[in-house]
Amino acid sequence: MFSSLLDVARNSPFRGPLTPARCEPSSLAAPQAAQSGMAAAAVVQGDSCEFASPKYFALCGLGGILSCGITHTAVVPLDLVKCRLQVDPDKYKNVLTGFKVSVREEGMRGLAKGWAPTFIGYSLQGLCKFGLYEVFKVTYSGMLDEETAYTYRTFVYLAASASAEFFADIALSPLEAAKVRIQTMPGFATTLREAWPKMVQNEGYGTFYKGLVPLWGRQIPYTMMKFACFEKTLELLYKYVVPKPREQCSKGEQLVVTFAAGYIAGVFCAIVSHPADTVVSKLNQDKTATVGSIVGKLGWAGVWKGLGPRIIMIGTLTALQWFIYDAVKVWLRMPRPPPAEMPESMRKRLEAEEAAKSK
Q: Cβ distance 15 to 41 under 8 Å?
């Protein structure tokens, strides 16, 4: 399946948000190349790989591993307190109290509980999230003509990110279940090596995917917002805020804009996905609970517990993830397509229509 997706991606005639800016001998070259079975993209001088090639997608996956694995592991203490606040609000009350109680009971080292499943799980998730997003984005846009792909680019972002996250969560779910057990069940286990065999012995392998559906409910809307909001925010920042065109910005300035767009996207991500995040934490803590019983017990207000720290955590996480991902692309000399621009044919057509109306 994926080999055919790669073929479609490499032969994509799409121009706009998905292809790097480069000089071509003729504006008709790309469609003609696609129709004749030739790759539409080519290695640009200075780049390490061809856009939409298997190597390009593999390096995108590597960028996803680094961006997600590093950032999620770095905020494990805050994530631990957030999970404990969700599953036992009477004891931990708020973020500050949660830190105090956790340190008093387990010491400073206790704040690092769950770092191993976090690092492994979110590295695997990042591989699929970013790598497959690039694959699906180019594939879906390649199914459309140039103007349609530009007009409906936000739907392309949403569909591509949802498709990628579907697979990413299958990779994440077992490690997420182990992480929550380690962090929220005192005495159960302190390491992944201890928690994993206990969970298999007591409940079987099915327990690792018990929270998969609510995980999809949390992560798919989160990722759709993360990618679509980031792509649109990046467009708007370069159009209305950054005082010069992107091609005139240094690599460092471009990374600063990437970080800003990522943080804005992260705030919306946290809000959209928080109720499902609370349900996932509760499900992984209590093996007898169901989604309906948890929602009925917590109520509408209860599923929003811990939103404050999650906004801080996810906003910072998302910004850093996009920054690291883009920095990896710079470091590896990968093609970095500019924000979407209106196709020339569409611009001329709209200008002609506007001129006709004014007569």
A: no
> CA–CA separation, 316 vs 75, rounded Å?
9
- Is residue 113 predicted with pLDDT exceeding 90? yes
Q: What is the DSSP secondary structure assignment for residue 44, as one 8-state letter? A: P
pLDDT one-digit tens code per residue, 43-83: 778 899 999 999 999 999 999 999 999 999 998 998 898 88
- Residue 23 main-chain phi, psi, to 5 deg: -85, 135
Q: Which positions ≥6 away from 219 have C-beta within 8 Å?
A: 165, 168, 169, 172, 273
Buried/exposed 284-293: b ≥16 CB within 10 Å, e otherwise: bbeeeeebee
279, two tokens: 């349900």
Question: Rounded to an integer, what distance in angstroms lies between the CA atom of residue 115 and that of residue 32?
Answer: 51
How far out from the chain centre does Cα 25 lie? Answer: 36
Question: What is the Cα–Cα distance from 263 to 311, expressed in whole angstroms?
Answer: 10
Please name the residue that has the structure tokens 């979110």. Answer: 122
Three-state DSSP class for residue 139: helix
**Confidence (pTM):** 0.79
As a whole number of angstroms, the distance between CA 14 and CA 3 comes to 19
Cβ neighbors of 156 (< 8 A, separation 6 or more) are 17, 137, 140, 141, 144, 149
Using a 10 angstrom Cβ sphere, with 0-12 exposed, 13-18 middle and 19 or more buried, the burial of residue 317 is buried
Q: Which amino acid makes up residue 263?
A: Y
CA–CA separation, 127 and 190 (whole Å) = 26
